């Protein structure tokens, strides 16, 4: 990074805000998992929906799919409301119309691709979950999250997002990714 870029990044750095967002993200990720799989006797809506789907003849590979409609709608609603709030606060509604049609179409296609890929991870997670023994479903979620981290960092390396990082940083990254890979095998034990 150039000296100017470094100084700009330091100005934006906020440790308390970053830790708060990381903690909230972890809690919300667990809530997403609970929404899908439920907690027997406590928060069991996801399991109930899956049982109804199975009772109506849905292939066991796909019984988790109806649950996503309800779980993901909450996330959509939260994100939509917050984005609209930011558009009002920053007066940026006109930005949607101030780009050329080629850029707009390109952005919409990339949004569609990103959303589809994001959904497919849960689609395939549901399929894999159907093959896990009872009591191991929570481990499936941890493996999914580990694979998200692993693949996003591998893409970051391929696309040179880590270019300019020091050797110590890259070493810590590689050790962390190796631990994530090994952790999936430890779960198997």
Sequence-ordered SSE layout with sheet pairings:
Elements: H1 3-12, H2 15-37, H3 45-55, H4 65-90, H5 101-129, H6 137-158, H7 167-188
Low-confidence stretches: none
Radius of gyration: 20 Å
Percent of residues in beta strands: under 5%
Mean pLDDT, to the nearest integer, reads 85
For the largest beta-sheet, the strand count, sense and barrel status come to: none
Helix proportion:
over 70%
Instruction: Compute the number of helices.
Output: 7
Structural class: mainly alpha
Compute the separation of the termini in Å.
43 Å
Overall form: globular
Q: What's the SSE pattern? A: HHHHHHH
Keywords:
mainly alpha, 7 helices
Write structural notes for this entry.
This protein is mainly alpha-helical and 189 residues long. It has a domain at 132-189. Helices cover 76% and strands 0% of the residues. The protein has seven helices and no strands. It has helices spanning 3-12, 15-37, 45-55, 65-90, 101-129, 137-158, 167-188. Helix 5 packs antiparallel against helix 6 and helix 6 (137-158) packs antiparallel against helix 7 (167-188). The longest helix is centred in the middle third of the chain and has 29 residues, at 101-129. The model has no long low-confidence stretch (mean pLDDT 85).
């Amino acid at each position: 990074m150039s000296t100017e870029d470094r100084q700009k990044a330091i100005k934006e750095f906020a440790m308390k805000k970053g830790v708060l967002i990381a903690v909230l993200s972890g809690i919300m990720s667990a809530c997403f998992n609970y929404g899908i799989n439920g907690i027997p006797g406590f928060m069991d809506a996801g399991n109930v929906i899956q049982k109804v789907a199975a009772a109506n003849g849905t292939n066991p590979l796909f019984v988790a799919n109806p649950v996503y409609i309800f779980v993901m709608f909450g996330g959509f609603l939260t994100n939509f409301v917050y984005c609209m709030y930011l558009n009002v606060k920053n007066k940026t509604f006109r930005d949607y119309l101030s780009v050329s049609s080629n850029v707009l179409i390109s952005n919409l296609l990339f949004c569609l691709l990103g959303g589809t890929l994001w959904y497919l991870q849960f689609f395939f997670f549901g399929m894999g979950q159907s093959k896990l023994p009872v009591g191991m479903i929570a481990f499936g979620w941890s493996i999914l999250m580990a694979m998200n981290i692993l693949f996003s960092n591998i893409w970051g390396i391929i696309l040179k997002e880590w270019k300019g990082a020091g050797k110590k940083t890259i070493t810590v990254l590689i050790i962390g990714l190796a631990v994530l890979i090994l952790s999936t095998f430890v779960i198997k034990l």
